[in-house]
Amino acid sequence: RFVNIVSIEDPIEFLHSQGRSLVNQREVGSDTHSFASALKNALRQDLDVILVGEMRDPDTMQTAITAAETGHLVIATIHTNDAPSAVARIIDAFPKEGQQFIAGQLAWSLLGVVCQYLLPQRDKAGLILATELMIVNSGIEACIRDRRLSQIPGLIQIGHADGMHTVDDSLIELLLAERISLMDAMAHARDPNFVKEEFQKALKSERKGWFSGLLRK
Fold first, then answer.
1. pTM score, two decimals?
2. 81, 115, 118, 137, 175 from 216: Cα distances, Å
3. How many domains, the chain?
4. pLDDT recorded at residue 46
5. Which of 55, 80, 126, 180 is a plausible cystine mate for 85, CB 3.0–4.6 Å?
6. Tell me, what's the pLDDT at 217?
7. Gap between the Cα atoms of 189 and 19, Å rounded
8. 139, part of any domain
């Protein structure tokens, strides 16, 4: 379908060709002064999708959330270790007196978080991707709104039916496929002991097939 897309990047690393959609790429420093100012200008246009190269400050975060609340699909990056930390990073960027309001906005507008981890491959040069996927369902929405962020990892872990998986699930699948070493998996795991124990159990049981199919559902 046709959509109007704007990306705000620092720097532009890849040029997107025009297909069915209109893509307008803007670079911080040459086309705009900052992510925040570019976002504010974007809200005055008839856009469907806004890509924010990086959310670095509260002004950019607030404008991105406002854009999502007004019906835009906003895709943004932020540097954190896992999905719950991404939520915490946004909320903690604001003064304490405004954090509850931001948590409410985020709970209502956030669709999900994808985390990427690059690990060295086991038997050849290069890197391989492990992921964590959090999809905001009613339980996670309530945790964000009430700022019970410590409960989110558990909800991701039991959220397979909604398409979620933890980084530990992803690491176990890569271990079973013999793509990474156990040492590297444990170094990137949220719970290294869990990864080691579940990997060893899976090797000895039919759960190997369950883990292998988990991320493909």
1. 0.87
2. 23, 17, 19, 20, 16
3. 2
4. 86
5. 80
6. 46
7. 39
8. yes
Domain boundary among 62, 77, 92: 77
Over the stretch 122-159, which tens digit does the pLDDT of each residue have?
A: 988 999 999 999 999 999 999 999 999 999 999 999 99
User: Domain range spanning residue 190?
Assistant: 111-217
Q: What is the pLDDT of residues 29-62, one digit of tens each?
A: 889 888 989 988 888 888 999 999 999 899 999 9
Residues 120, 211 within the same domain: yes
Q: Where are the beta strands (DSSP E) in 112-151?
A: 112-120, 127-135
Show the tokens assigned to 137.
């369902």
Position 16 in a domain = yes
**120: preceding bond cis by omega (within 30 degrees):** no
CATH of the domain at 188: 3.40.50.300
- For residues 95 and 58, what is the distance between their CA atoms, to the nearest angstrom? 9
